[in-house]
Amino acid sequence: MLGGEATSLDPEAGEDSPSGASLRGSHRLAAVETCERMWALRYYWYFRGNKDNEWRLGGSLIHTCYQYYYASLLPVKPPWYFEKTLQERLAEQSLAMPEPKRSELVKMALTNLHYYMQVYSTDREILRPLHIEEEFAATLGELDPGGPWPELDNDLVTCRPDLVYEIGPWIWILDYKSHGRSRVNPKTGRLTRWKEDGEYAINWQVLINLLILRKRLGPRVRGFVIQRTTRQEPYDFDRTPLTIPQIPYEEAARTARELVRHEYQVMSKIEQGERPSARYHACYGRFGPCDYRYACLSPDRETMQKRLNSEYNRANDAEVTRLKSRLRVVQ
User: According to the 3-state scheme, what is the secondary structure of 154-203?
Assistant: First the structure.
């Protein structure tokens, strides 16, 4: 049964779970430009939805299965590997999903893992996992030396790669992506053909991960790999190293500095009693509705606050303070 070094931002990061969001990662940085209200609800007040949709939960369960598999190959396994078995972890993750869908999704994830281990059976011999769901960080001063707004130099930008592994002399970053029926060939049920000029030709998450990992682990970090799979039979897989575009890679660090500056502008607005601006172009995307759309659909602000308090979980004040204190290096 499937049961850190100083490069990490926090020695305890990721120990209690094989999954989780990065502290100030690519998704958070993009969110402040997408919608200030959404960013504030998620990253300033730390509201989280009580419910999960089927496709997102299915992807999370597959992700957890893969993390347990690669953790089993580590000579020193992370604490979360021993705290719960894979089956216990999946049951916990899917608790909010009603039956019979809950059992169906857990079975799907375990079946997917079974075939994944067959397809990539040579991973045990040729691939050496180094870091699983571990938080890495670099300051803006490191990533963008001499950039504008030098008061931001000690602010941290973070990433939490699914898997960092070594093959031969090179280190690679790997990210899992699971796809439903809308992203497969309708005739075969297999993954659609990989497109070199598709959604990963320029990808913000990839750029930030590479910048930080190369700063922390050095020039041996060769590149970024996308591991795709399907969430339904016939289970299909492919693994593709990306071609990294030079100009976006060179400009990404400055973009990160500009986005952190935007975060502080939104925080200042809130602390002065103003409302963060809503951007209604992003309420529904290709992955479904924004997590906070239900609150925004409220008929008045009193109802909006009631919905936030009843339909969302919020970190307690002590946890919010702790999280915010970790965004900068204190000299």
Answer: CEEEEECCCEEEEECCEEEEEEEEEECHHHECCCCCCECCCCCCCCCCCC
Burial of residue 322 (CB within 10 Å: 0-12, 13-18, 19+) is exposed
Paired tokens of 89: 């972890």
* Model pTM score: 0.91
Say how many C-beta atoms besides its own lie within 10 A of residue 102's C-beta: 19
Beta bridge partners of 178: 229
Q: Cα–Cα distance between 118 and 139 in angstroms, integer?
A: 40
Tens-digit pLDDT string for the chain (331 aa) = 444 232 333 333 344 577 778 899 999 999 999 999 999 999 999 998 776 788 889 999 999 999 999 999 999 999 999 999 999 999 999 998 999 999 999 999 999 999 999 999 999 999 999 999 999 999 999 999 999 999 999 999 999 999 999 999 999 999 999 998 888 999 998 999 999 999 999 999 999 999 999 999 999 999 999 999 999 999 999 999 999 999 999 999 999 999 999 999 999 999 999 999 999 999 998 778 999 999 999 999 999 999 999 999 888 888 888 888 888 876 5
CA distance 284 to 302: 23
* Burial class for 286, CB neighbours closer than 10 Å (0-12, 13-18, 19+): exposed
Q: CA 54, CA 62: separation in Å to the nearest integer?
A: 12
- CA 283 from chain centre, in angstroms, equals 20
Q: What domains appear along the chain, each with residue ranges and CATH number?
A: 26-322 (3.90.320.10)
